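thread: overnight batch results

M.L. [08:02]
morning all. the overnight job finished for the chain we discussed friday. pasting input first so we're all looking at the same thing
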Amino acid sequence: MTYQVIIDDNFHYMDPEHQRVGPRFATLEEAVAYCRRVVDEFLIENYRFGMPSYELLTQYLLYGEDPFVRGGEGGVPFSARDYAGTWIREVYGEWQFAVCNRDKPLLSRLIATALAPVVRWRIGRRLHRSAAWSATSVRRGRD
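M.L. [08:03]
and the structure it wrote out:
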């Protein structure tokens, strides 16, 4: 059984003309890991120093890529939108995610700027873990 990754464009959500076919994978775990990397790349590339969490999530929901997996029996337990929200909560911290919102733009910007070094450190830590995972999987594939 193979698992096919399909990638929607959030800017053209549910428009089949803007949907593209990604790679196929032998296991569900590999397919979901690929989907996570697609979301990770968008979030990392679009993060700006001092950006409040709600702005990054809004950027993703409006312009990011929404990968999903087809194949296997039944539905595939992965939602790129849920994953992006979880990723942002982990990187920004639950407290900052809860406090920063559109209703308080000045407070949100001040908090995001004050905590930006922590957010950057957490993003760097995620990148480091991701790179270690990729290197390990590449080595395993060559064995």
